[in-house]
Specification:
Elements: E1 4-9, H1 18-26, E2 37-48, E3 54-66, H2 75-79, E4 85-87, E5 94-96, H3 106-110, E6 117-119, E7 124-126, H4 132-136, H5 142-146, E8 152-156, H6 157-164, E9 183-186, E10 200-201
Parallel strand pairs: 1-9
Antiparallel strand pairs: 1-8, 2-3, 2-10, 4-5, 6-7
Protein backbone atom coordinates (compact mmCIF):
# COMPACT_ATOMS: atom_id res chain seq x y z
CA UNK A 1 0.00 0.00 0.00
CA UNK A 2 1.15 3.51 -0.80
CA UNK A 3 0.74 5.79 2.19
CA UNK A 4 0.34 9.46 1.35
CA UNK A 5 1.38 12.08 3.88
CA UNK A 6 1.45 15.83 4.45
CA UNK A 7 4.61 17.74 5.29
CA UNK A 8 4.34 20.98 7.24
CA UNK A 9 7.24 23.33 7.98
CA UNK A 10 6.23 25.43 10.99
CA UNK A 11 9.42 27.44 10.75
CA UNK A 12 8.33 29.17 7.52
CA UNK A 13 4.57 29.41 8.13
CA UNK A 14 3.37 33.01 8.56
CA UNK A 15 -0.14 32.09 9.70
CA UNK A 16 -1.78 33.68 6.64
CA UNK A 17 -4.44 30.92 6.56
CA UNK A 18 -4.43 30.72 2.75
CA UNK A 19 -4.43 26.92 3.09
CA UNK A 20 -7.48 27.04 5.35
CA UNK A 21 -9.40 29.50 3.16
CA UNK A 22 -8.53 27.78 -0.13
CA UNK A 23 -9.88 24.50 1.24
CA UNK A 24 -13.03 26.04 2.68
CA UNK A 25 -13.83 27.91 -0.53
CA UNK A 26 -13.12 24.94 -2.79
CA UNK A 27 -15.43 22.62 -0.89
CA UNK A 28 -18.00 25.28 0.05
CA UNK A 29 -17.88 24.22 3.67
CA UNK A 30 -20.55 25.41 6.11
CA UNK A 31 -19.78 28.31 8.44
CA UNK A 32 -18.82 26.15 11.41
CA UNK A 33 -16.83 23.49 9.54
CA UNK A 34 -13.18 23.45 8.53
CA UNK A 35 -11.05 20.67 7.05
CA UNK A 36 -7.80 22.50 7.86
CA UNK A 37 -7.11 24.79 10.81
CA UNK A 38 -4.16 27.09 11.48
CA UNK A 39 -3.35 27.23 15.19
CA UNK A 40 -1.60 30.28 16.65
CA UNK A 41 0.43 29.14 19.66
CA UNK A 42 2.01 31.85 21.84
CA UNK A 43 3.63 32.25 25.23
CA UNK A 44 5.85 34.41 27.39
CA UNK A 45 5.19 37.74 29.07
CA UNK A 46 6.12 41.43 29.10
CA UNK A 47 8.25 42.61 32.04
CA UNK A 48 8.13 46.23 33.29
CA UNK A 49 11.42 48.10 33.56
CA UNK A 50 12.38 50.78 36.09
CA UNK A 51 11.84 53.38 33.37
CA UNK A 52 8.24 52.31 32.99
CA UNK A 53 8.70 50.51 29.70
CA UNK A 54 7.87 46.87 29.00
CA UNK A 55 10.32 44.37 27.53
CA UNK A 56 9.58 40.83 26.33
CA UNK A 57 10.49 38.00 28.67
CA UNK A 58 10.54 34.59 27.05
CA UNK A 59 8.04 35.70 24.40
CA UNK A 60 7.55 33.26 21.53
CA UNK A 61 4.93 32.31 18.98
CA UNK A 62 4.45 30.02 16.02
CA UNK A 63 1.77 28.52 13.80
CA UNK A 64 0.71 24.93 13.15
CA UNK A 65 -1.44 24.13 10.11
CA UNK A 66 -3.38 20.95 10.76
CA UNK A 67 -5.88 18.84 8.85
CA UNK A 68 -6.69 15.14 9.05
CA UNK A 69 -3.39 13.29 9.37
CA UNK A 70 -4.64 10.13 7.63
CA UNK A 71 -3.16 8.10 10.45
CA UNK A 72 -1.72 4.63 10.07
CA UNK A 73 -3.91 3.58 13.01
CA UNK A 74 -6.84 6.02 12.75
CA UNK A 75 -8.97 6.21 15.88
CA UNK A 76 -11.93 7.45 13.83
CA UNK A 77 -11.95 4.26 11.73
CA UNK A 78 -11.45 1.99 14.75
CA UNK A 79 -14.33 3.57 16.68
CA UNK A 80 -16.90 4.31 13.95
CA UNK A 81 -20.00 2.17 14.70
CA UNK A 82 -21.31 2.14 11.11
CA UNK A 83 -18.12 1.74 9.09
CA UNK A 84 -18.54 5.22 7.59
CA UNK A 85 -14.92 6.06 8.34
CA UNK A 86 -12.71 4.22 5.88
CA UNK A 87 -8.98 3.96 5.22
CA UNK A 88 -8.23 3.44 1.54
CA UNK A 89 -6.16 0.29 1.03
CA UNK A 90 -4.21 1.71 -1.91
CA UNK A 91 -3.43 5.27 -0.78
CA UNK A 92 -3.85 5.24 2.99
CA UNK A 93 -6.25 8.19 2.71
CA UNK A 94 -8.91 8.24 5.44
CA UNK A 95 -12.30 9.29 4.07
CA UNK A 96 -15.96 9.37 5.10
CA UNK A 97 -18.77 7.42 3.44
CA UNK A 98 -21.65 9.85 3.83
CA UNK A 99 -24.15 7.24 2.67
CA UNK A 100 -23.74 5.30 5.91
CA UNK A 101 -22.65 8.05 8.32
CA UNK A 102 -25.31 8.73 10.96
CA UNK A 103 -23.62 11.80 12.44
CA UNK A 104 -23.15 10.26 15.87
CA UNK A 105 -19.88 12.19 16.40
CA UNK A 106 -18.03 9.17 17.76
CA UNK A 107 -15.19 9.86 15.32
CA UNK A 108 -14.96 13.46 16.48
CA UNK A 109 -14.60 12.31 20.08
CA UNK A 110 -12.08 9.58 19.21
CA UNK A 111 -9.78 11.66 17.01
CA UNK A 112 -6.95 13.21 19.05
CA UNK A 113 -6.57 15.94 16.43
CA UNK A 114 -10.23 16.96 16.21
CA UNK A 115 -10.31 16.40 12.45
CA UNK A 116 -13.94 15.28 11.92
CA UNK A 117 -16.64 17.92 12.36
CA UNK A 118 -20.43 17.68 12.22
CA UNK A 119 -22.42 19.28 9.40
CA UNK A 120 -25.61 20.40 11.14
CA UNK A 121 -27.59 20.81 7.92
CA UNK A 122 -26.52 17.59 6.18
CA UNK A 123 -26.56 15.48 9.35
CA UNK A 124 -23.23 13.75 8.75
CA UNK A 125 -19.56 14.18 9.57
CA UNK A 126 -17.14 16.16 7.43
CA UNK A 127 -13.38 15.65 7.23
CA UNK A 128 -10.39 16.28 4.98
CA UNK A 129 -10.02 13.47 2.44
CA UNK A 130 -6.65 14.78 1.19
CA UNK A 131 -8.42 16.05 -1.95
CA UNK A 132 -8.86 12.49 -3.23
CA UNK A 133 -10.11 13.72 -6.60
CA UNK A 134 -7.04 15.89 -7.13
CA UNK A 135 -4.69 13.10 -6.02
CA UNK A 136 -6.36 10.55 -8.33
CA UNK A 137 -5.78 13.03 -11.19
CA UNK A 138 -2.05 13.20 -10.27
CA UNK A 139 -2.50 16.55 -8.56
CA UNK A 140 -1.91 17.75 -5.02
CA UNK A 141 -4.28 18.82 -2.24
CA UNK A 142 -5.66 22.37 -2.56
CA UNK A 143 -4.04 23.48 0.70
CA UNK A 144 -0.61 22.49 -0.59
CA UNK A 145 -0.88 24.25 -3.94
CA UNK A 146 -2.38 27.33 -2.27
CA UNK A 147 0.34 27.90 0.35
CA UNK A 148 2.33 31.01 -0.68
CA UNK A 149 5.26 30.15 1.61
CA UNK A 150 5.41 26.49 0.49
CA UNK A 151 5.12 25.51 4.13
CA UNK A 152 2.98 22.56 3.06
CA UNK A 153 3.94 19.66 0.83
CA UNK A 154 2.44 16.32 -0.13
CA UNK A 155 3.60 12.94 -1.41
CA UNK A 156 4.18 9.43 -0.18
CA UNK A 157 5.37 9.14 3.40
CA UNK A 158 8.70 7.83 2.12
CA UNK A 159 9.11 10.83 -0.20
CA UNK A 160 8.33 13.30 2.56
CA UNK A 161 10.80 11.69 4.97
CA UNK A 162 13.47 11.56 2.27
CA UNK A 163 13.02 15.28 1.56
CA UNK A 164 12.47 16.61 5.08
CA UNK A 165 13.58 13.97 7.58
CA UNK A 166 11.44 12.21 10.19
CA UNK A 167 10.12 15.43 11.73
CA UNK A 168 8.34 15.56 15.07
CA UNK A 169 4.55 15.56 15.58
CA UNK A 170 4.76 15.85 19.35
CA UNK A 171 4.92 19.64 19.57
CA UNK A 172 2.44 22.02 21.16
CA UNK A 173 -0.45 22.42 20.62
CA UNK A 174 -0.61 18.87 19.23
CA UNK A 175 -1.21 15.87 21.52
CA UNK A 176 1.08 12.94 22.15
CA UNK A 177 1.25 10.51 19.22
CA UNK A 178 -1.20 7.64 19.74
CA UNK A 179 -2.34 6.97 16.14
CA UNK A 180 0.85 7.18 14.05
CA UNK A 181 -0.20 10.25 12.04
CA UNK A 182 1.08 10.61 8.48
CA UNK A 183 2.23 14.17 9.07
CA UNK A 184 5.90 14.94 8.69
CA UNK A 185 6.17 18.10 10.77
CA UNK A 186 9.26 20.26 10.78
CA UNK A 187 8.93 22.07 14.12
CA UNK A 188 9.36 25.81 14.57
CA UNK A 189 12.68 26.78 16.14
CA UNK A 190 10.77 27.81 19.29
CA UNK A 191 8.47 24.79 19.35
CA UNK A 192 7.66 23.26 22.71
CA UNK A 193 7.08 19.57 23.33
CA UNK A 194 3.54 18.25 23.66
CA UNK A 195 2.36 18.22 27.25
CA UNK A 196 5.15 20.44 28.55
CA UNK A 197 4.38 23.73 26.83
CA UNK A 198 4.14 27.05 28.65
CA UNK A 199 2.04 28.81 26.00
CA UNK A 200 -1.51 28.49 24.72
CA UNK A 201 -3.58 28.63 21.55
CA UNK A 202 -4.67 32.25 21.11
CA UNK A 203 -6.99 31.93 18.10
CA UNK A 204 -10.42 33.49 18.35
CA UNK A 205 -13.13 30.87 18.77
CA UNK A 206 -14.58 31.60 15.33
CA UNK A 207 -11.21 30.91 13.70
CA UNK A 208 -11.34 27.26 14.72
Amino acid sequence: MTQYAFHFNSDVCTGCKTCQVACKETYKLPVNNLYRKVYNYQGGSWKPTEAGHYVPEGVFGYFVSLACNHCTNPACVANCPTGAMQKDEETGIVWTDHDVCIGCKTCETACPYGAPTFDEEAGFMLKCDMCKGEVEADGKPICVTGCPMRALDFGTREEMIEKYGEGDVEVEPLPADTTDPNLILTPHRNAQKSGSGTGSVVNLEEEL
